Amino acid sequence: MEYIFPNPDEKICVVKCNGDNYNIPIGEKLSKTSSLYKKIMSELVFPFHQSVIKLCQCTRNLMKDSIGPNVLFLSNTEGGFAKCGLNLIEENESTYYPHLNYVDLLINEERLNNGELDIFSHELGHVMMANILKNFPTSNSSKQHVSMGITDYFMAFNEGWAIHFEKLTHDFITHYKKITNLKHSYDRDLEKLWQCNADSELRLNGVQDNIYIYEKLLPATDKLKFNIVDTIILEHTSTIFDKTKLKSSQEMLSCEGVIATLFYRISTNIILQNNYLSKDFYNNFLISNINNQSDIRKLFTPIENVMLKTFWIWYKIKNKLNQSSIPFIEFINMWCECFPQDKPELLKIFLTTTVGKTISNDLSYIYEKAAYTGMIGNMHAFVESISEYKKTYNSLYHMIKKGDIALDKNIGKEIWIENTHIKVPKCFWLNKEMIPLKVNLNTASIYDLMSFPKINLDKATEIVNERAKKRYFKAVEEVGLNYFK
After folding, report:
1. Quick one: which of 30, 10, 40, 58 has its CA closest to 306?
2. DSSP assigned state of 314
3. Residue 452 DSSP one-character state
4. Which of the residues 156, 213, 348, 406 has an alpha carbon 20 to 30 A from that of 23?
5. pLDDT of residue 81
6. φ, ψ dihedrals at 424, nearest 5°
7. E-state strands within 22-113
């Protein structure tokens, strides 16, 4: 019996762009006899792709949304997107699906040969989230999202979830890993300097190594002679990290790379994967209830199991999220409430990955000291730091586990200020659309602050240092409204 797909014979259909009607794409199913269709399907049959297609259908089943097929839309425009709304032509008849979420990609045979269908699961991740979190708050940041940059809590949550699929794809599909290795060949060093390529490489290695939690360093250039906009972009996209200095709690949860790392560690955690639930839980994701003789472990793999829990938590918090929420904190708290058997391991993942920054700075001070003594080879001091770290970590962990301290105790609210004097490109490499710079006072860098006419380098440095002492600002008045006029 088929429990998941309404139409098991066509779990996903490939649709070719056939025009545009008032910004609603029009598409027609790609012929199954075409060479392009066969090549696309030869990759979509990889077990991991089949798994994410299955998971996406589960999000639709959870939301009681069975109108329209699962679609891979072959676009005529550059980029990869999760889109909503499609006119689908079948046998000369057009059907409009206004609420259908689907993946939009520019894919042809050349791009397939270059391994560019590896981004499919990333975009399908966005579709999964859009299916459940239909009213997810919009981003406040004016900066383009990149894995290494600081934007805001909501953009980081959305993009971080999608990015973690890129690492999973390369873990599970050797086809893409081989192509990626070829792209990183010794004779392509110059190409790897391009911003998108640097970001793509970092999304794999950075998530693996938890590199995004560190503060970044700028290249050794005379920044003050740069145009301030270029300096802000350079800082935003720099891939150089200082392992002796951690980001603040606000910066961590506003960085999609950090969120991607957290999601990756949750999705791949063996304990969370193998904590299965009663059959009643899984019925929420099925089109018909599973019978008592069925083995749920044969229906859902361990990694699918942990992702179904993720979807359920989204479902539980979907009406709680607003512009003042910290989505990842809401996510962790609700998981602990819904799945108490997972709570010990989930809290360990969160606390270890973020070095306790969202709760206090105690653990991070020891971590930074250990990083420094480790780099200079001071073995005695390093061993002492490890002992001190373990003791502090255990104390903090038990306080969180018992509920004696809140996960967000060390997190300040977002304080957004728009700079009407400076505009930044909405997309860095196009520079066609320029928008006013918006900064969050609790994550703004020295150069963000220097973009305001009344703030020079000394004042910007003073503001950032004062913020570090206080942990965060509670209101713009702590700095002075006049500086931002």
Report:
1. 58
2. H
3. S
4. 156
5. 82
6. -120, 155
7. 24-29, 71-74, 80-90, 93-105
Using an 8 Å Cβ cutoff, are 274 and 91 in contact?
A: no
Q: Which of 214, 308, 311 is nearest to 255 (CA)?
A: 214
| Percentage of the chain modeled with pLDDT above 90 | 78
Q: Which residue has the tokens 């996960």?
A: 407
DSSP state string for 384-445: HHHHHHHHHHHHHHHHHHHTSS-TTTT-PPP-EEEEEEEEEESSTTT--SEEEEEEETTT--
Q: Which two tokens stand for residue 25?
A: 């794409």
Neighbouring C-alpha atoms within 13 Å toward the C-beta of 414: 23
Identify the pLDDT of residue 225: 66
Cβ atoms of residues 152 and 440 within 8 Å: yes
What spatial distance separates the first Cα and last Cα of the chain, rounded to whole Å? Answer: 65
Cα dist. 466→233, 431, 461 in Å? 24, 34, 9
pTM above 0.90, yes or no: yes
The alpha carbon dihedral of 7, 9, 11, 16 has a sign of: negative
Q: Is the pLDDT of residue 222 over 70?
A: no
pLDDT value at position 192? 84
